[in-house]
Amino acid sequence: MFEGWSIMGLFGRRISTCLVVGSFYGCVSNSADSEYLSGQPTIFATLDLFDQSHENVEGVKYPAWQGDWAFRRERLEIVDRGFRTLRPDVVFFQNVLSRMGSPSESDELILSAGALNRFNWKDFKIGFIEQSGENREMAIAASRPRDFTKNWPDNTKNQWQLGQDGYVTFSELDSVESPVLLVNVVMPKTQNQVNLWYSFLKDRILELSKVRHICPERVVVAGYLPYEGDSKRFDDMLNSLNLKDTAVGFCQNAEKCKTASEQNDIFKISSQKMSLGQMDRILVHKDTEVINAGMHFLESKENSRYKALYDLPKVWGSSRFGWFASVKLRHCQRLRH
User: Fold this and answer.
1) Is 221 in contact with 183 (CB distance < 8 Å)?
2) What is the C-alpha to C-alpha distance for residues 78 and 130, in angstroms, rounded to an integer?
3) In degrees to the nearest 10, what's the CA dihedral of 96, 98, 104, 107?
4) 320 phi, psi to nearest 5 deg
5) Residue 76 belongs to some domain of the structure
6) pLDDT in tens, 158-184
7) pLDDT tens per residue, range 245-304
8) CB-based burial of residue 137 (10 Å sphere; 0-12 exposed, 13-18 middle, 19+ buried)?
9) b/e code 63-95 from CB counts within 10 Å (16+ = b)
10) CA 20, CA 64: separation in Å to the nearest integer?
11) What residues make up the domain containing 75?
12) What confidence score (pLDDT) does residue 248 get?
């Protein structure tokens, strides 16, 4: 459950003649986006699926769950139930896995057989885990009829590595009025590297917005975006891009916004260097109406098998909780020049 956020506030929009068409498209006419014509919000979500790998830290003993797809399927069942409750429109995924030579061992295929069975996916390979033979990817899934722009030019780069273990990818979602730029981010885990990379991220968003003629109101940034209270570069990025954090106004009780939390047993075991707090965010234009926002994928279940195998009292969907935001994107006011 949402622990304090209104489910009815999110899902009242579903009782509508626009159910089939979706909130980036006109309900009856394609003359403008339906989030303006009909007042229908769009639900964005972000979730790190956790790759079950680990750093080689001297003296630290990790569970031997790397490559354990029985364990991963148990986790994905919990994630799928979260999607059935939330019913998102666009999902930013980090650390999506698929095993080479085994089509059934694929996060995308498993989730596409459940709550995300009518979603289009855009995938970016970011690495390969040799020990388990698994591809690591960043991905975005969008409910149909939404789809991704097919004409992204070959000479325009759309993914970068950030430091040793961070990544950013850019996708463009088709829309009648103006496309939406979706920026999927995993900042480096080493905290002293993060601030520098926010300046790099800001520059890439400005650059691609200009090249692709995308206005500031149609930029959505999501993923692992840690923020310390004195992070001037993070604040500079928000100000330069006219962005705001969807958590603002929804985190009076800070405990209910900690996506990195020791309440999650997988996080306690696997995250040796990560700080506690809200690490997963969705950023939107400052004039965007945020109807509702909060953590999601909070469910867990008892499982004695993994207590014995990994000293894990409960199975959780991932190592961190996810974040959602129900928003109404704005019309373009102007393009960046």
Assistant:
1) yes
2) 27
3) 0
4) -130, 155
5) yes
6) 999 999 889 999 999 997 678 999 999
7) 999 999 988 888 999 999 999 998 887 667 888 999 999 999 999 999 999 999 999 887
8) buried
9) bebebbbebbebbbebbbbbbebbebbbbbbbb
10) 44
11) 7-328
12) 93
Number of domains in the chain: 1
- pTM comes to 0.86
Residues 6 or more apart whose Cβ sits within 8 Å of residue 135: 97, 98, 99, 100, 125, 127, 128, 129
Distance CA 184, CA 178 (A): 19
Q: Which residue has the tokens 């097919």?
A: 150
Residue 334 in any domain: the answer is: no
Are 256 and 4 a contacting pair, CB within 8 Å?
A: yes
pLDDT of residue 189: 81
Assigned token pair, 75:
């986790």
Structure-token pair, residue 209: 């917005």
Name, in order, each residue with C-beta under 8 angstroms of 327's C-beta and a sequence gap of 6 or more: 41, 42, 44, 246, 284, 288, 289, 290, 291
337 located within any domain: no
> What CATH number did the domain enclosing 290 receive?
3.60.10.10
